[in-house]
Amino acid sequence: MKNSLFCVAFIMSLSGFSRTLPISLLKENSKPASTSDLRLATDYLQQFYKLEVTMTNRTKRSTDLLSEKIKEMQHFFHLNITGTLDTETVEVMKTPRCGVPDVHNYSPNGEQPKWYKNVLTYSISQYTYDMPSAVVDSVIDSALKVWSTASPLSFVRTYSSNADIIVQFASYAHGDSFPFDGPKGTLAHAFGPGNGIGGDTHFDDDELWTTGMEGFNLYLVAAHEFGHALGLSHSRNPSSLMYPTYKKRNTGGNLLSGEDIAQIQTLYGPRSGLQYFYPKYNMRRLFFPWRLQSIIPLNMQDKCDLNLSFDAVTDIGQDILLVKNRYLWIRHEQGPEIKEGRITDFIPEINSDIDAAYTSGGFIYLFKHSRYWTVKKSHIKGRPKSIYMLGFPYSVKKIDAAVNIKSTGNTLFFVNKMYWSYNETAKSMEMFYPRYITDDFPGINTAIDAAFEKNGFLYFFIGSAVHKYNYNIKSIVETKNANSWLGC
After folding, report:
1. Which domains does the chain have, with CATH numbers?
2. How far apart are the first and last CA of the chain?
3. Rounded distance, CA 110 to CA 93, Å?
4. Which segment of the chain is annotated as a signal peptide (predicted)?
């Protein structure tokens, strides 16, 4: 096999080696290193610094060999180079990290391994149970895009076992001769570009994988491992994404340091212009296909334009969908990236703009003029229906905004300065409606563009502003730019 395996782990017993070391030579302030620290050091240096076990019956040679490897590791991590197992060195060795060695592998031709094509396929063969598969799909897609934004590479999802990069969550021995070690040790490993197992990326499923600050952030670890899958080695720079140990950091913005960008562009060159790829989604596999791909049309309004307003907004589980004209944005509550694109790219059967939207009972209801669609799994359920079937008078020609109130189950429809309350259980309008918006929502004195509910608060979008409304005290408690929901 020609591929260079970045994740080289020399799994062998070092018990005889550590027993022959004179502990007095491995001290900190005359305190002997413990047997457990010696075992930790030998295992660590063997896996990550190519410590070779030879001549175990010759005490001095074995000690010198270990001491030199400790110095090599201390140099890599910018520690005091003592050659002994001081506290700082042991702490670094105990830090959760990537399973790829810190020393480069030998390449017969002296070239750094790389892919000799710019379009790579990837698949996910086994998921973690720590988060929904759709969230994993989104995070993996986002982690790959970290590298495609800085290079001409692009990544296409496939369900084939012959994908260039196969992602797998597994525990302990999992078929590649490099078993994982349980919680909080080696987090993941990846193989460099090449045939067979080349490019494959494995995550230790004994870790707690999350999209936040608890446990281990899958986005951060995956973006790091995909760097290896593309041919990058570990960096000594603590600000580099390719630094070997795990550290919590803000996942907003660009994860790549200047060094990371230089390294990936050394292999593949700079990104040349924007290319737009509109995938054909397999709707039978995914409930939320918009988690897969960020599709940015050329004439789509900048999401951070201070004048941006929205036509419709609704929650989808923990995510927020925002619509403007024929385009939409999806903010993932459990993920690092905003997805954006044409409505028709996500819901192919709708080729128009949207007036209002709300979610109830697992369905999304989208309104346009006097008709509405019921959407499930990105497909239209049945034919468009008339809003008059809901109980609206014929004087109502369109819905401005809609929001389902979780505590009551009722849906509020806003039309000009009035609003209706629709009983989703009885499938009829409540009595004594419509009412004036300002009577029941003091401070909201004009027509509403969009609305949704989250964590017990109502959010009213009016022009380029969004008002956070506390219904219990009937008051606006905060006002921000509408696109603050897009991270702007």
Report:
1. 15-94 (1.10.101.10), 119-268 (3.40.390.10), 303-486 (2.110.10.10)
2. 47
3. 30
4. 1-20
Dihedral angle computed from the Cα positions of residues 108, 114, 115 and 118, in that order, rounded to the nearest 10 degrees: -150
State which amino acid sits at residue 3.
Answer: N
Could you tell me the pLDDT band of residue 8, with boundaries at 50, 70 and 90? very low
Please tell me whether 37 is known to bind a ligand. no
Q: Are 336 and 252 in contact (CB under 8 A)?
A: yes
More confident position, 110 or 272:
272
Count the neighbouring beta carbons within 10 Å of the beta carbon of residue 185. Answer: 17
Q: Per-residue confidence at 337, pLDDT binned at 50, 70, 90?
A: low
Counting other chains too, the contacts that 416-419 makes at CB distance below 8 Å and 24 or more residues apart are 416/447, 417/446, 417/447
Write down the H helix ranges in 33-121: 35-49, 59-76, 87-94
In tens, the pLDDT along 282-296 reads 322 223 333 333 333
Q: Give DSSP secondary structure letters for 439-481.
A: HHSTT--S--SEEEEETTEEEEEETTEEEEEETTTTEEEEEEE
Which residues participate in catalysis according to the annotation?
225
Answer for the pair 433, 442: CB distance below 8 angstroms, yes or no. Answer: no
Integer-rounded Cα Rg, in Å, for the chain is: 28
Mean pLDDT of 443-468: 92
Are residues 118 and 268 in contact, defined by beta-carbon separation less than 8 angstroms?
Answer: yes
DSSP output for 298-364: TTPPPTT-TT---SEEEEETTEEEEEETTEEEEE-TTSS-EEEEEHHHHSTT--S--SEEEEETTEE
Which residues on neighbouring strands pair with residue 170, listed in sequence order?
204
Q: Do 154 and 230 form a contact (C-beta atoms < 8 A)?
A: no
Distance CA 140, CA 190 (A): 14
Task: Report CA dihedral (103, 229, 132, 146) to the nearest 10 degrees.
Answer: 100
Quick one: pLDDT at residue 484? 86
Which tokens sit at 395?
Answer: 């004087």
pLDDT of residue 356: 95
Is 252 annotated to bind a ligand? Reply is no
Confirm or deny that 214 is annotated as ligand binding. Answer: no
189 is in an annotated binding site: yes
Does 102 carry a binding-site annotation? no
